[in-house]
Amino acid sequence: MKTSRSPRTLGMLALMWVLLALAAAAQEAVWKSTRSKLISTDGYSVKCDYAGPEGKYQFYYDVEGNGSKILTEVLAGSSRGGGAKILYDPATDKENVKLKTDMFSVRRSLEARDIKGSMLYLPLFKQLVEELVEPQPREIVRVGDHTLLMFGDKAKTQDILEVNASGDPVNVRRLEKGKEVKRMTFTELVWGPTAINWP
Questions:
Q1: Is residue 7 domain-resident?
Q2: What is the model's pTM?
């Protein structure tokens, strides 16, 4: 014997489907908007706190355009290198970064072990996007006016990117089997052209 659904039940099911589709579209829009900002070629300046396998660092970071010039200033209290300023300016030297401290100035090859593949010459936020364990979040969760974008498998390797109501990054964490192994926290973020002055 067939059972027929009432028009009211069908209407509720249709409404639930529409709401789920709208929620999924809204989540997709959050990542699309945030990703667009992170890979933007407009430039930005940001203060960053890093804790991970390499130690603990706090630094100011300025990038012009799509990396046409990048300045990193390591702040006091970092594991090492406090007070160092590192400039990448491919217009004057494509093969090296310039490193300056109170004691000396040197050039370091981009192929040096501690420089190669680093944000010292590759834009930080673009690198962040490229190093996420997956290109799309598996889950997006609202927490107050912030949003958590979760990439990867929480039982294995997972990246959690937290963004504010404007879609700006607040922090990114890497977890291995649920244990945090790396965190970067971003403050004082300003988008757009930034003046990089090399001493």
A1: no
A2: 0.83
